[in-house]
């Protein structure tokens, strides 16, 4: 053995280390190499592959990201992101002119996504690209959150990478761009991560041991979830509360249980801070009626369909998956024969990957249970800090009770608030819990996370994910992008014609009058489609967008859908220079009458566009 005398060590030549010490040094090196090639390599892999997924959907063409991905509710989100990009997170008068479109009247709590869109807007003048980039970046971000989720439950290596990507590529992520903030999905996955950290005691342990990385990551997750939208924030609060309740049943001390609710409190505080400016604005500027009315029964109408979540979509390139697709299609056709409860849309479906995960959990949990029942003393002690399967399944059961029609969702809406009505939006939470359960079962089976078995399973799952959950959705995005590019081109062409005739920055009155938000379409004019010419022409201020039942909407409401001669001077006094008419908002008979009236008042249009749908008339003629 080497001398233990310090002086001897300083005055004598170095003594070669015994051969027994060499393996120890190699072990340290192996651990360092494993750490370097462990989570950093896995994180890099999911980021690159998650980015490749969405790039494939857009045909690796950035220009296709410039198109609006739909009309309807998505246009309102584009308008919100547009204002954040202008440095006006509470709205301005570029929309809803002359009083303005004040967003606090209709708060959503999506501060993270809008701030990110505002950041992207610093580098482009494209009206739709910033928010589309938020959706695109949500794929690598969700994959990262999914990887963290799987590492929390003990899964590592290639299986964790592929499982994270399989969770990222569920139909909800691809097919929900009309509700783009919900489609980002990563706040939902982070909500599940927080609940598992709380329920397993891992977060409390990290606090006691001052594990800075875990605490900082958890704090960031709380901020992202709390400011990532009302729905995911509320889902997180419910999940964390259920996780704390789980600790009660596991015999935790009441002080520990109360401490477990701190993350829920933090999420609630962040959400409250996000909504506080809107509350103060609404209090200082009261509305004259309901901006968006909600009823408890809507929690049943907009609940989820468990049957659809269990089956995949009929869109798959996976050989042999056609039978499953036909089964899902047949079920959907039967379900839509008559009005029923629950939202029946393909975005709420599962995938072949999620079906495999559910089957693996069911069979694997049975095998683990039988092994444990045969063990000595009929018990196998749980490892410290492990996420137990009972916690994940308990959270899954609670989520299902809020998800299905006439479940806890209706009680919540009736007793707490009906404002949270879209309980089908629990889909990413459900699948995150399913994937987490599969990770727990893999760990409980003591299967390796590396080696031939892990790589073999990963290769098979990767093929399933690519062919069932990635390649089919290029066609889905083609169906959104191609007409979106036509809308963008029409808007820009119309903008050039209007700006050439009226180059000054001024107001444009949009007819027919369409209230905002949440109103039915007006004839063939979508309820938010007035935003297309407005967003593609920032050189003008547009009348659509003033929030209904507020002082902002008084002038456009008063004018309505027909222009009277005595209103022209009033419009000029308010800074309007043109009248834009979308003829789709009138019946054929009404359109003929309006053309005659406006032509007699203002002469011929100075610009036309979108086929024959749009006409602009100058007010100074």
Features:
elongated; 621 residues; mainly alpha; disordered N terminus; five-stranded mixed β-sheet
Rg, nearest Å: 29 Å
Distance between the termini: 103 Å
Residue share in helix: 55-70%
Oligomerization category of the chains in this entry: single chain
- Helix-strand makeup class: mainly alpha
Strand order of the largest sheet: 2-1-3-5-4
What kind of sheet is the major sheet? 5 strands, mixed
Low-confidence spans: pLDDT under 50, at least 5 residues?
A: 1-26
- The total of helices stands at 28
Strand-residue proportion: under 5%
Mean pLDDT across residues? 90
Shape: elongated
What is the number of strand segments? 5
Task: Tell me what you see in this structure.
By secondary structure, the protein is mainly alpha-helical. The protein has helices at 6-11, 21-37, 39-57, 73-85, 111-121, 129-152, 157-168, 171-175, 180-183, 186-199, 202-208, 212-226, 230-249, 254-260, 262-284, 298-301, 306-310, 322-335, 352-374, 389-403, 408-415, 427-444, 452-469, 473-501, 531-535, 554-559, 568-573, 588-602, and strands at 507-511, 541-542, 576-582, 607-609, 614-618. A 5-stranded mixed β-sheet has the order 2-1-3-5-4. Helix 25 links the parallel strand 1 and strand 2. Helix 3 (39-57) runs parallel beside helix 7 (157-168), helix 6 packs parallel to helix 22 (427-444) and helix 10 (186-199) crosses helix 22 (427-444). It is elongated.
């Amino acid at each position: 053995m080497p001398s233990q005398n310090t002086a001897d060590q300083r005055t004598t030549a170095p003594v070669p280390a015994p051969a027994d010490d060499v393996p120890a040094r190699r072990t340290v090196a192996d651990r360092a190499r494993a750490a370097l090639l462990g989570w950093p390599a896995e994180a890099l892999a999911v980021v690159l592959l998650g980015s490749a997924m969405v790039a494939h959907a857009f045909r690796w063409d950035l220009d296709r990201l410039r198109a609006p991905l739909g009309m309807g509710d998505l246009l309102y989100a584009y308008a919100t992101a547009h204002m954040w990009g202008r440095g006006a997170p509470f709205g301005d008068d570029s929309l809803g002119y002359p009083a303005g479109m004040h967003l606090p009247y209709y708060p959503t709590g999506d501060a993270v996504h809008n701030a990110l869109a505002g950041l992207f807007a610093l580098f482009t003048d494209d009206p739709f690209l910033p928010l589309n980039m938020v959706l695109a970046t949500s794929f690598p971000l969700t994959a990262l959150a999914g990887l963290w989720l799987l590492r929390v439950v003990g899964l590592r290596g290639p299986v964790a990478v592929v499982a994270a990507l399989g969770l990222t590529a569920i139909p909800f992520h691809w097919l929900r761009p009309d509700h783009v903030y919900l489609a980002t999905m990563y706040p939902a996955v982070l909500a599940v991560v927080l609940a598992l950290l709380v329920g397993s005691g891992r977060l409390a342990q990290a606090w006691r041991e001052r594990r800075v990385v875990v605490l900082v990551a958890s704090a960031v997750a709380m901020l992202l979830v709390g400011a990532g939208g009302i729905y995911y924030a509320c889902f997180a609060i419910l999940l964390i509360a259920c996780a704390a309740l789980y600790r009660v049943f596991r015999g935790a001390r009441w002080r520990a249980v109360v401490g477990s609710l701190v993350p829920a409190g933090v999420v609630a505080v962040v959400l409250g801070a996000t909504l506080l400016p809107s509350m103060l604005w609404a209090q200082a500027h009261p509305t004259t009626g309901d901006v968006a009315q909600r009823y408890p029964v809507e929690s049943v109408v907009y609940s989820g369909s468990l049957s659809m979540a269990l089956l995949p979509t009929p869109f798959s390139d996976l050989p042999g998956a056609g039978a499953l697709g036909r089964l899902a299609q047949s079920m959907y056709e039967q379900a839509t024969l008559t009005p029923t409860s629950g939202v029946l849309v393909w975005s709420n479906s599962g995938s072949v990957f999620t079906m495999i995960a559910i089957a693996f959990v069911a069979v694997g949990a049975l095998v683990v249970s039988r092994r444990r029942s045969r063990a000595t003393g009929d018990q196998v002690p749980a490892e410290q800090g492990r996420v137990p399967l009972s916690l994940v399944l308990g959270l899954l059961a609670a989520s299902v009770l809020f998800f299905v029609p006439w479940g806890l969702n209706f009680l919540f809406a009736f007793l707490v608030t009906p404002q949270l009505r879209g309980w089908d939006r629990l889909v990413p939470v459900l699948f995150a819990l399913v994937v987490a359960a599969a990770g727990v079962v893999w760990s409980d089976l003591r299967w390796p996370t590396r080696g031939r078995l892990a790589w073999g399973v990963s290769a098979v799952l990767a093929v399933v994910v690519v062919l069932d959950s990635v390649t089919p959705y290029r066609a889905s995005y083609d169906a959104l992008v191609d007409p979106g590019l036509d809308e963008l081109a029409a808007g820009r062409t119309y903008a050039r014609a209007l700006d050439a005739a009226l180059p000054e920055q001024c107001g444009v009155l949009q007819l027919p009058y369409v209230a905002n938000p949440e109103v039915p379409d007006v004839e063939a004019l979508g309820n938010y489609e007035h935003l297309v010419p407005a967003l593609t022409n920032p050189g003008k201020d547009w009348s659509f967008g003033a929030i209904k039942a507020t002082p902002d909407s008084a002038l456009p409401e008063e004018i309505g859908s027909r222009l009277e001669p005595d209103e022209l001077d009033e419009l000029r006094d308010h800074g309007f220079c043109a009248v834009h008419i979308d003829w789709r908002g009138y019946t054929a008979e009404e359109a003929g009458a309006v053309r005659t009236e406006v032509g007699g008042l203002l002469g011929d249009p100075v610009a036309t566009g979108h086929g024959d749908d749009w006409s602009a008339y100058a007010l100074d003629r």
